[in-house]
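Final report, closing paragraph on structural work. Over the funding period we assembled a curated collection of sequence-structure pairs, and we close with a single example.
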Amino acid sequence: MTSRRDIAMAAKAWPFEEARKLLARVERDEAAGKKKSHVTFETGYGPSGLPHIGTFGEVARTTWIRRAFAELSDKPTRLIAFSDDMDGMRKIPDNVPHHDMLREHLQKPLTSVPDPFGTHESFAHHNNARLRSFLDGFGFDYEFISATEAYKSGRFDAVLLRALAVYDEIMAIMLPTLGSERRETYSPFLPISPKTGRVLYVPMKRVDAQAGTITFDDEDGEEITQPVTGGHAKMQWKPDFGMRWAALGIDFEMFGKDHLPNQAIYARICKALGAEPPVNYVFELFLDQNGEKISKSKGNGIAVEEWLTYSAPESLALFMYQKPKTAKRLYFDIIPKEVDDYAAHLDKYWSQNEAERVENPVWHIHGGKPPQEPWPVSFALLLNLVSASNAETSEILWGFIRAYAPGVSPKDNPSLDRLVGYAIRYYADFVRPKKKYRAATEKEHAAMVELAAALDQMAGVTDGEMIQNIVYEIGKKHSFEPLRDWFKALYEVLFGQEQGPRFGSFAALYGATATAAMIRHALAGKFIA
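Its predicted structure, as stored:
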């Protein structure tokens, strides 16, 4: 009998492929006598803007690799969610209030910038709380670390002192990557001004590894000498990456393609500080509907809360799981497809063997324990049902669902019940405003009259395939070529949209006679009016 570990070693799903790379590194380290109590995963977060879905994606994807690693090894693991909240606020995000107030705090560490929303002690605390709230709601197992806390508590002190000792080596790594003008003022250390509290981008006049101090000119020109430890300074973001890996003993971290040009720099800094760089995984960036990169400061993506207004977290997770190395557009119109694809994967899971299941996205999304709950109707079907019935409450939709699938109920099918609520909201906000009904052509009118008559003869029929076959036959009879033009006509005339789910399935759910009545209303021009 094939063991679970054997199945995991042979699995082709990308989380297993990455987990095997990490396992090879761990085994090499242990063979060399570098034994650790835990394998440490990290995901980084810059709280300069409100959290967006890309942030969630990093944590979710890292979690899936961590879960796959657990199938390969008994070695304990931990996941660190690191917030670079000591970074200076270089610009004000477009999508936050009180810009005038924030302008007074530019260049201060984000944990020293007042919260423009007035709910937390700082802007960083506000954004960190939003991130953690969602991660907690989704059930992620992680340890949150604040950069400000790590710097001020002394957690980074030993590695910062080491960075002072190898200052020249770090400069030799960084200077060739900079323009000639930037080289004149560059320092891997960013002191915090003792007078203004701002993060200073100034050159070092002296570094004293033995004393653990840096000397620089403050904003007013006064020469200052202060410790590099205890939160009196932070590192520039590229050296900070490598320093963090060394200080926290990171074994795995993924990041977006925008970090790829700097990946080697992070690794060299980490090695200069006496540590082995982690295994990395580089994913493609998310794009908005216009093909532009999603940005926290622009706010041009979908916020986590917005996605969850219209769909369950599982659909968001599926979007993140699929093809992480392919650039994907992230906007509201993709939600129905992700929901229905998730339902299809979940349905398929229960007929698969163990080796097939670990290749199924729902195995990863649910940590190997997907829920066993049937979804007899799709999201796309529900959207059309809302349209046809003008339903504004879930009770109306459940009346149709019960008739279509006896035995299904909100109590026994809570996921489906939530889907009903999502469909009503999604339809109202995204489908109804875009509807464009048109009149049927003479050819389409004749075919639809015949279809309505056929549906009248099928009262009580809930077999969507049987109804679909009738629709096919009528389309062929009226010489629609290709046949998809017939279905396109049905959706444009009846629903005001170019496509939809299988028409037979919709008619079975809505009711054959009710569908016939809807066709006659449309042909009478009542939808256009």
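Residues 53-72 form the longest helix (20 residues). The mean pLDDT is 93. We thank the funder for supporting this effort.
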